Amino acid sequence: MNVKDELIVAVEENKQELIDLVCSLIQINTENPPGDTTEISRFIADYLGKDGIDVTWHQSNEQMYNLIASIGEEGGKELIYCGHTDVVPAGDRDKWSFDPFSGIVEDGWILGRGASDMKAGLGGLLFATALLKRMGVKLPGKLTLAIVPDEETGGEYGVPWLLERGLIKGDGCLIAEPSSRLHPTIGQKGSCWFKLDVYGEAGHGSLSPLAGRNAITDAIKAIAAIRTVFDIDVDIPEEVKPLLAVSRKYMEEVEVEREKYKEILEKISVNIGTIHGGTKSNVIPDTCTVEVDCRLPFGITQKEVYAYIEARLDELGIDYAITPFGFRSNANHTPATDPVCTAIINNISYVTKEEAYGVMQWASSDARHFRDHHIPVLQYGPAYLPSIHNFDEKVKVEDVVLCAKVYVAAVIDFLQQ
């Protein structure tokens, strides 16, 4: 039996440890905001320490800790396995049918906030690294864990913080973000979040619309103009058309409930997320603030989107200001032929005996930061996709085990390439 098969068997034989680990991670509340990762960081360091894996702590913000740990040898290739410890807030507890931080197993599912995004994937990375160390596998290179505390609010204190300081480097990276079991995401759309402030002139509500200038009604006009970005016909570059074609195939044949959304891959999405304006019903509002989330396909940049929006708003003759915030990037991808992609995709097929291929993600992620630093990256992690950021989040136990098998096998292939 070769070393890959020995590792895959070992995952199966020790899967209860993996399941218990994931449950324990979910039971530690790491909602962001507020983003306190102190307790979970201690837990992770203790878990890895049991197998003699040293962890270095890097505090990037108050109560936010980045953890780095490595196994293997210097001088060869280096593979980064990356995961985030923070989760989105659970929200209204009354809308959950179970305690969001219970971390229990029920009917083949692990339940709780972060089960799919992404404590199951994080647990898989930790378990895989510990298992490789425990079994004394001689790696012809280095495997580095990069565990970050801040992804769900934009990631300022996580992956980019580490990369900008040169604390992590590598020849390839896998992020255990949620994905389909057979289809890692090798490309992401760009992101353009901005705040629109519209200014009016206050006055007595009984005199409106003859008096003052209503910032809310001007904001309504602005919103209508902004939403026309969806109608822009984007010229998709030839080099990414094969990726988009296989991604449409995926939405048509695999995640069939998403088939109706397939045009979003080539469109600028636009979501009016929040609106705040006015002080009282009988006062003409002098300010209104709107937060907008646009995701950008290949073929158009943030700069071009802002130019289009500002031109439309200028035509309205309103008084406004635009301030970017949060996620900001252009569309980006890693070629399917890159060694890190082939190592993961080939081993998904190796473990499952089914066809696997990489697809485009219609959202954005930390992957862009690695690509900005010339580190090829893809995302592959266990998930029940409809439950992500939703109430009653969960993940299948069998998918957690599958991904862990891929993680241990892919390390061998990538470092030997």
Automatic annotation (TrEMBL):
GO molecular function, one term: metal ion binding
Statement: the UniProt record of this protein carries the keyword Hydrolase: yes
Lineage, broadest ranks: Bacteria, Bacillati, Bacillota, Bacilli, Bacillales
EC number: 3.5.1.18
Stated family: Belongs to the peptidase M20A family.
Name of one Pfam family that matches: M20_dimer
One of the GO biological process terms: lysine biosynthetic process via diaminopimelate
Keyword Hydrolase appears in the UniProt entry: yes
Cofactor: Co(2+); Zn(2+)
Listed pathway(s): Amino-acid biosynthesis; L-lysine biosynthesis via DAP pathway; LL-2,6-diaminopimelate from (S)-tetrahydrodipicolinate (succinylase route): step 3/3
Peptidase M20 dimerisation domain sequence ranges: 186-319
Protein name: Probable succinyl-diaminopimelate desuccinylase
Catalytic reaction annotation: N-succinyl-(2S,6S)-2,6-diaminopimelate + H2O = (2S,6S)-2,6-diaminopimelate + succinate
Keywords: Cobalt, Hydrolase, Metal-binding, Zinc
InterPro entries: ArgE/DapE, ArgE/DapE_CS, Bact_exopeptidase_dim_dom, Peptidase_M20, Peptidase_M20_dimer, Peptidase_M20A
